[in-house]
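Support request, please re-run this one:
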Amino acid sequence: MRPFPPYIARALGYTIAWFAEHHFSNYCLCASPLMMVAHCASITKQIRLGTAVVVLPLYNPARLAAEIATADALSNGRLML
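Re-run finished. Output below.
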């Protein structure tokens, strides 16, 4: 898959991008939405980034809280839950 350049998203008027967690499917695009948010935060400056679905029972609560805080810090407060 070719990367989607952030300048194209801005030119098209995107203001937010959502990533949902999916496992074990033919169309799995994102197994870790928080990791995707952290990656996209490094290549964008203005677009807000959100986790549309995080499957909570799969995570330790303390670790998930730490990962959310890290993603929010890396995105300079652009994380949407």
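Strands lie at 16-20, 48-53, 79-80. Residues 17-80 form one domain.
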